[in-house]
Amino acid sequence: MQQQISVITLAVSDLERSRRFYTDGFGWTPVFENEEIVFYQMNGFVLGTWLKARLEDDMGRGLHSPGAFTLAHNVSSEDQAKVVMDRLAGAGGRILLEPAAPPHGGIRGYIADPDDHTWEIAFNPAWPIDENGHVTFGAS
Amino acid sequence: MQQQISVITLAVSDLERSRRFYTDGFGWTPVFENEEIVFYQMNGFVLGTWLKARLEDDMGRGLHSPGAFTLAHNVSSEDQAKVVMDRLAGAGGRILLEPAAPPHGGIRGYIADPDDHTWEIAFNPAWPIDENGHVTFGAS
Fold first, then answer.
1. Could you give the C-alpha distances from A104 to A14, A55, A89, A140, B93, in angstroms and in order?
2. In the 3-class helix/strand/coil scheme, how is A64-107 assigned residue by residue?
3. Is B55 helix (H, G, I), strand (E, B) or coil?
4. How far apart are the C-alpha atoms of B132 and B25, rounded to whole Å?
């Protein structure tokens, strides 16, 4: 497996208020945005700010602030998502959601690390990952 | 400012248990470790797993699980840390800790985004950042 984190997703309650912090505060430019999510192409991975209710729906888990977020590790195939989830479960992880196809495409499951930090294990063919593990946003 | 995240730091209660998840589960190799922290060089940034009590000390803030973590944005000078903190505060951020020198070196402050996600704004001359914003672990 690549030593790679593909996405940091932060849950937000007010998308415009959050956008102002990241665009006016940090001076960052979104690579994609719609009424529920803003994506920023970062240094080798993607930052997403997603409405909390939607992230909760996707995870099947209520989230509390501070700390409503998930990390993602993208893999190279649907089968690989299941392989990685099982390997993580064998190393002390707790499966929250078995890999399945969400409405927005691809395949993703969720697993908690031993300290209850959430990882999404996803197959998303629209987002290229290069040989150095650098992940680029792509419209699907 | 670079569109760049330098570090993801996850609070952990048992370093060895966490290490097993990341090394045996994901198959990742630490770039540095001691009795309180394990660092992994990732795709353009650094992942740290740090004993929760030490991260809480550093932040001056108690943390709850799930969600005990901080993101970091490293800047190019001590002065710049203050400039960035003030700019973020003006864009809806809430300062948790003004930039100051911790025992482990460098300069860092903490600020919460509008959804209470914590950002460390740090000057760490030991960790190079290239023109693409890719951050490399360095021993200080």
1. 21, 12, 25, 9, 31
2. CCCCCEEEEEEECCHHHHHHHHHHHHHCCCEEEEEEECCCCCCE
3. helix
4. 30
User: How many Å from the N-terminal Cα to the C-terminal Cα in chain B?
Assistant: 24
Q: Is residue B134 helix, strand or coil?
A: coil
Quick one: which of A75, A116, A81, A84 has its CA closest to A99? A81
Domains and CATH numbers, chain A: 7-59 (3.10.180.10), 71-123 (3.10.180.10)
CB A40 within 8 A of CB A1: no
Is residue B140's pLDDT more than 70? no
Q: B17 contacts in A (CB within 8 Å)?
A: 92, 114
The SS3 call for residue B75 is: strand
8 Å CB contact of A21 and B113: yes
Nearest CA in chain B to A18: B114
CA A57 to chain centre: 13
**CA A80 to CA A69: how far, in whole Å?**
23
Q: Model confidence over B27-78: pLDDT tens digits?
A: 999 999 999 999 999 999 999 999 999 999 888 888 887 778 899 999 999 9
Question: What are the residues facing B107 on neighbouring strands?
Answer: B123
What is residue A140's predicted lDDT score, i.e. its pLDDT?
62
β B32-33/A94-100 pair status? unpaired
ipTM above 0.95, yes or no: no
Tell me which of A40, A51, A83, A117 to substitute to probe the interface with B (most B C-beta atoms closer than 10 Å): A117
Q: Min CA distance, A79 vs chain B (Å)?
A: 16
